[in-house]
């Protein structure tokens, strides 16, 4: 078994006083209260009074788990309701609320939406990521939330995977560096403060190394839409997505050997632990045929033993149910493997009673329960939750504030990767006439992508922001000079044209695609504009490289913009030359669909990017 270079185990999370506090509290807790702390239901499932009655440790919002109306005020009211109810439990143990703030407080309408990780990797700027972490933390804390299921430290090997955009890079060191910067941003001055947010480093481990076709998440024979997939609101188009490859890779099996797992996928966790991370989320995926949620060697012996992780491991959404067909067996195997808190979105009472019975039957030891509860309580203490008065320390008007949007705009500028620029096509002249084509040019939803307001994301004005087109018009000398043709149909020629094409928003396995080729509609748009433009620049909004080899020769310039988020004016800043192109390619860009994984003959390699400043 190849060992990871020895590191000092993570230093104890608490000083002796804190450790004594936790031990004394643990000694007063009943088995049910300890199991309650290990339980995390989704906010729509929790019956009034159950947080106090069951001493629930946490509640979460899944993707799109928003209050109605989806406003900062209603978010704060919802979250504080759960936190205040926890104070009414017998021991008043504080509750921690968790959300996926993976590119800003992205479920919340009006929050600042930052570029997804794939773009931040291109920016390659730890200080920028740290500042984004801090701004995200403040908007999250304003709504009473103190736990963010981020950063993902995925290192995508096969970009057909629908979560590729959650990875910063295909380079392990870059992922580790940026993840630590984000963790430091969420921490702020100190974990023990009222404006720190607990990160979840995810998804442990090698979530991005699954083999295409190995996922069993969707039973193609059954094809019923289970409750989680139904929440994704893609029910009516589910079959088409399956035909395109959905759920072929995500949550599948990784066949890599242990040396590769340790060399490529483990180091970001080691770095995150050294940076003080106190929560890790287990991956749905399997390694060599064994589900990570039931993988005692990796969860306990490696993560908690070898790497010395002192925090707690949370399962993914219904993740333990994939360990074994029998629920009780799943509970026993996953808790014994090292899962400390279980994200059981729906039947939380069933989980509690099943685990209680398993402990009473001796199938899960009391020591394992104590270890899990101790880890959870220690993290809550380290975050200062026991002293917190539940009144958020950040005013609601910081949500989506101008300062954070300016930071997001700065980030957008640094994410843009210039891959072709001939004949002086770029920078565009802000004083000249410009044709902008493609509906994606005026679509904040398309530039935000998945995990935005809803789990899958969507089109149009999904949240307040600035579209690329609006940004271009605001920056042009004369806005009327910026002509917009969503379908590219124009009756005259233009000296300069910008065509914006975008992937359809997606999240997780819904975004798995067997082909990354441009669509017929995109090719037709490009052809129409090419015929009417002397110089044509193409800008791609996508969660991963797309196959553009055939079309690229007819383009004068090509920009990969990834998923920039709400502040599209950052794109205009660079296209008009106010700021240089500085983005770096962190993903190998395949030449064809036949050569997608570690392409032998890629179209672009990291380092092929053109920089202009
Ligand atoms: C999802 C994702 C995970 C997320 C969790 C809660 O299925 O796998 O990244 O944090 O559920 O939304």
Could you outline the blueprint of secondary structure elements for this entry?
Elements: H1 16-28, H2 31-37, E1 39-40, H3 50-54, E2 58-60, H4 72-87, E3 96-99, H5 117-123, H6 126-142, E4 147-148, H7 172-187, E5 198-199, E6 201-204, H8 227-231, H9 238-244, E7 253-254, H10 258-265, H11 267-274, E8 279-282, E9 286-287, E10 290-291, H12 296-306, E11 312-314, H13 327-337, E12 342-343, H14 348-360, H15 366-382, H16 402-415, E13 417-421, E14 434-437, H17 444-448, H18 468-475, E15 482-485, E16 494-502, H19 520-530, E17 533-541, E18 557-562, H20 569-575
Parallel strand pairs: 1-12, 2-3, 3-4, 4-5, 6-8, 7-9, 8-11, 14-15, 14-16, 16-17, 17-18
Antiparallel strand pairs: 9-10, 13-18
Describe the 3D structure.
By secondary structure, this protein is an alpha/beta fold. It has 3 domains: 22-214 and 249-394, Glycoside hydrolase, family 3, N-terminal domain (TIM Barrel), CATH 3.20.20.300; 218-246, no CATH class; 403-575, Rossmann fold. Helices cover 34% and strands 11% of the residues. It has 20 helices and 18 strands. It has helices at residues 16-28, 31-37, 50-54, 72-87, 117-123, 126-142, 172-187, 227-231, 238-244, 258-265, 267-274, 296-306, 327-337, 348-360, 366-382, 402-415, 444-448, 468-475, 520-530, 569-575, and strands spanning 39-40, 58-60, 96-99, 147-148, 198-199, 201-204, 253-254, 279-282, 286-287, 290-291, 312-314, 342-343, 417-421, 434-437, 482-485, 494-502, 533-541, 557-562. A 6-stranded mixed β-sheet has the order 13-18-17-16-14-15, sandwiched between helices. A 4-stranded parallel β-sheet has the order 2-3-4-5, covered by helices on one side. It has a 3-stranded parallel β-sheet with strand order 6-8-11. Strand 16 (494-502), helix 19 (520-530) and strand 17 form a beta-alpha-beta unit. The longest helix has 17 residues, at 126-142. The model has no long low-confidence stretch (mean pLDDT 96). This is beta-glucosidase. GO terms for molecular function: hydrolase activity.
